[in-house]
Amino acid sequence: RPKRRGMRARPALTPPGVRNRLERDFTALEPDSKWVTDITEIKTGEGKLYLCVVLDLFDHRVVGWSMHHRQDRQMVIRAVQTAVWQRQGDEPVILHSDRGSQFRSGDYQTY
């Protein structure tokens, strides 16, 4: 059996009504104004783990995170929930992601 090659990324389709609000400006002048989020894979002796992190672009502080053995929309929502729960203010925040499938899910968009 031939060895399988890794998955190749497909261009993300932007859901209707969603636009790139950061437009590659990854600087923030105040805390909790711009957040970015992504998922990374961690290989362990017992298998893979996936870590979703939410970073504040003002000081690059981790404001929310979640880890699971599957990368799914619930893991992403939990990471964002922990970030929202720790916020001090109630001003709007821009949350930027790479628009992967977890971030395009209906549950995530509704949240």
TrEMBL record:
GO biological process, one term: DNA integration
Location of the Integrase catalytic domain: 27-111
Single Gene Ontology MF annotation: nucleic acid binding
Gene3D superfamilies reported in the protein's UniProt record: Ribonuclease H-like superfamily/Ribonuclease H (3.30.420.10)
Superkingdom field: Bacteria
Alphabetized InterPro entries for the sequence: Integrase_cat-core (IPR001584), RNaseH-like_sf (IPR012337), RNaseH_sf (IPR036397), Transposase_IS3/IS150/IS904 (IPR050900)
The protein's name: IS3 family transposase
Species of the source: Xanthomonas theicola
Organism lineage: Bacteria, Pseudomonadati, Pseudomonadota, Gammaproteobacteria, Lysobacterales
